[in-house]
Each structure stands twice: as structure tokens, then as C-alpha cells.
């Protein structure tokens, strides 16, 4: 969804950069002509990587089904639940219903 939401802005930005470099391509000074080619090529390669390669790599190497912060919250909740349960109901007086209510 990020590519769908930001793809238009990224393409528009690249188009304006390439559009401004078109004037450099027709310069009589060699260095400005070469600069126009380099900036155009770098912009198009960056656009390709930003919209195609990077999302694919992030899908392959991104967080799993349960990111670390969700695992950590679940672990902290279990620790807090155990401490509260120990304070309220001693372990030898717990019933299955008491444990199920806190799960």
C-alpha cells in the first residue's frame, strides 16, 4: 500500500528532475551535457529501485508475522499477569476458571 500511496509522488518527482535535465542534454559545453545524462540515469535507476527492488526486498527480509515489539508486549504482559495473579491468588488456591479469566 505504501507504493500505491507514494508511488505517484515519487514518479512525479523523478519526472520533474528528468524534465529539468533535458535542457542540460543540449548544452554546448560538454561537461553540462554529461551532467544531464548522469543525473537522468541516476534518477531513473533510483526510481526503479525505489518502486520495484526495495519493496520486493522488504517483503523478503521484513519482519515476520509477529514483529519483535508485539512479542515483547506479550512477554511483558505474561510477566505482569503472573505477578498480579501471585499477589491476588496464591498458586495453591488457583482454579482453572481463575487462570482462564486472566488469559
TrEMBL record:
- What is the protein named? Membrane transport protein MMPL domain-containing protein
Which InterPro entries does this entry report, sorted A to Z? DISP3 (IPR042480), MMPL_dom (IPR004869)
Domain Membrane transport protein MMPL residue range list: 2-78
The UniProt entry lists membrane topology as: Multi-pass membrane protein
Which Pfam families does the annotation name? MMPL
Annotated TM spans: 12-32, 38-61
Recorded source organism is: Zooxanthella nutricula
Location comes to: Membrane
Give the source's domain of life in one word.
Eukaryota
UniProt keywords (A-Z) are:
Membrane, Transmembrane, Transmembrane helix
Q: Do you know which SUPFAM superfamilies this protein is assigned to?
A: Multidrug efflux transporter AcrB transmembrane domain
Amino acid at each position: 500500500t505504501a507504493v500505491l500511496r507514494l508511488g505517484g509522488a515519487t514518479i512525479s518527482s523523478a519526472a520533474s528532475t528528468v524534465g529539468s535535465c533535458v535542457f542540460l542534454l543540449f548544452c554546448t559545453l560538454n561537461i553540462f551535457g554529461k551532467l544531464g545524462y548522469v543525473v537522468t540515469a541516476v534518477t531513473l535507476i533510483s526510481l526503479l529501485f525505489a518502486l520495484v527492488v526495495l519493496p520486493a526486498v522488504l517483503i523478503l527480509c521484513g519482519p515476520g508475522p509477529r514483529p519483535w515489539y508485539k512479542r515483547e508486549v506479550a512477554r511483558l504482559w505474561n510477566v505482569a499477569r503472573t505477578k498480579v495473579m501471585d499477589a491476588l491468588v496464591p498458586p495453591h488456591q488457583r482454579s482453572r476458571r481463575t487462570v482462564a479469566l486472566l488469559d
